[in-house]
Amino acid sequence: RKEFVELYVNYVFNESVRKPFKDFMQGFLRGCPAGTWKMFLPAELQIVLQGQTKFDWHLLEKNVTYRQYKKLDQTIRNFWTVFHKLPEEKKKMFIAFLSGSDQIPGYGLEHFNFSIVDPQAENPDELYPFANTCRRILFLPR
Keywords in UniProt for this one (predicted)? Predict the structure, then answer.
């Protein structure tokens, strides 16, 4: 029985996927040569490929630059009060809205910079917030 179980497990987890995995590996290595990835430890490679998974959202607030706003303006204080009360998933959705991706690059939030700009609309109540994802600019009407 023991031999049967060992052979069966070996077949299911190794032999049955050998050909598909070999094909996948060839395609993967064609686009991502192995020599490039050898310098990373597995945890580091995961961060490079997936981005950061743990966030200190206060670092994000510290790295913002303001145009036509000051840090203590009521609109900015209201924005950060609401932002910090959001659940984690909504904060990631904001990052996606701002940058086009809900992933934070491997270097982390301490280097993730963006700007909050007043679009200076004549009637700001008729304007929704919008973003320039290429430059990470949030246009936040007063």
Answer: Ligase, Transferase, Ubl conjugation pathway
